[in-house]
## 1
Amino acid sequence: MSFDIALSGIQAINEQLNTVSNNIANAATYGFKSGRANFASVMAGSRPNGVEIGSVTQNITTNGATQTTGRALDAAIQGRGFFVSVNNQGTTQYSRVGIFAPDATGMLVDSNGNKVQGYGPTKNGARGPMGDVQIPTGQIPAVATTGIAYTGNLSADWTVPATAFDSTKNDTYNMVKQSIVYDSIGTQHTLSQYFVKADADTVNVFYSMDGTAVDATATPAELKFDTTGALVSTAGNTIPYSATAGGAAAGSVTIDYKGTTRFAGVAATTTNRSDGYASGSFVGVEMSADGSLVAKYSNDQSQVVGTIALATFANEGALSPISETSWVANAESGDALVDPPGVGLSGKLSTGALEGSNVDITSELVGLMTSQRNYQANSKVLTTENQMMQALMQAL
């Protein structure tokens, strides 16, 4: 009997050592959750009959330290939640390892090639459907300019030019500023604004597109100011332009002069911003803290093309492991509750970072020494039992 009990102790300790050694080996594995071997007493009827490893549990609920990587599509979850992916067999699995990249088809996949699950782009305030996340890697079309925001100070010290406006003569206007305009196919044009003081409270603005007057009558826009130098009215600030030889449609641009002033001193421009842009090619994608995937293009534009989903569980400790860093749901864990990061029970993301292993090396080494002592003690029992049996046989 004593032999069997001591032998069961040695076998159980061997199994515990497998768990401890696996923890130590994965101390640097991203998203790894340490395991623990749980001893259980073995009974033969009412008599003790040794020990066994009753179960091995993973410490899923304890997060590992966040490790900065600087990579745009790496993400660590701050709090609860798991990234959701679907493998080639259609199995939905959950992981804390946030290493993502678009594959050759533009589909967002994790480090194992599984398709990451998330939400499509938001349209009309509604979140897109849940499913595979597609990253559009082509070009985005041009958007024609329809508005320009211009703010500045038109100096009250200006004098009224002595002769009528002529864009070729510098002494017929007080200041000229250029703004960028894109047509319907993305061709860039230069819109020039010629500011001409008309009287004490009025500044006229004449316009030309690529050096050519955009209005045959040369009727200027009028900017009216009050005695405090504040802009009180604007008229004629919508500038039409004709279709171009390149096939672009005719259009118009409205300039918003809100905030422009007429103070004494130096004339200055603080805002000169156009909407619209040329077409652009895909150059990369980044992830935001709220899980948004932001595609960036060569024309300095960006757009949200999807949002990563996170899953939480009523009993996440009961998830069934399918690898050292991936799990599947079961009846005990409950169904997944899926939300974007930071919504509901889901934690926010730390981008450009990954979650490290939650293995405590110090505790594992202490456990390793404890296992060694227990192993030696059980070995001593076997040795003592053997000596007692030898003594008994010699006595007989």
## 2
Amino acid sequence: MKKTAVVLFSGGIDSSTTLAIALKEGFECLALTFHYGQRHAVELEAARRIAAAMGVRDHRVVDIDLRQLGKSALTDKIEVPKGRSVDEMSRQIPVTYVPARNIIFLSYALALAEVTESRDLFIGVNALDYSGYPDCRPSFIKQFEEMARVGTKAGVEGHPVRIHTPLIHLTKAEIIRRGTALRVDFALTHSCYDPDPQGLACGFCDSCLLRKKGFHEADIPDPTIYSRR
């Protein structure tokens, strides 16, 4: 029997590559996507397309309304930063940070891993070419894994969940090369924080700029169609 794994899956470059890695490693993957009240809900359709293209048989979309908490440009009426340099992105935690988002997402994934008796959990966090979020760092993952070990039935009974972070020390270019080697169709992915009404990427938010930078440095054509606005 194949081992099962829960994969946090947003429909972007990182999570799609992570899903491809988990499948390559022989896991039967349960992809977990969140509709959390994000302004860029177009990513949900991207996630569905990619999961289907990769042959994932169990893809779940969970509704959580983080708009009730606010204080993020992704869930509230706050302007998304545009045209920033990589240095500016890493100087401080940006307004696109969603408070405790990965803690919330990992908690759901951990609960799902318990009920499906999965011992492995994959998340595509990255600590190099990223937007400065504190919940994408190795120290956070290490602490969450320890919390899971002491705070779940599976953990205290000697069956702790292992959290895999295969991209955490890779640049965006390295992630794109890895995904390309695994035949990820990046044309299906979505990264933009502020897409236009047709769902096209703006081309200037932090996520779009990091995406462009990654494809440029990987020397791989960017298949993204950007908005003309």
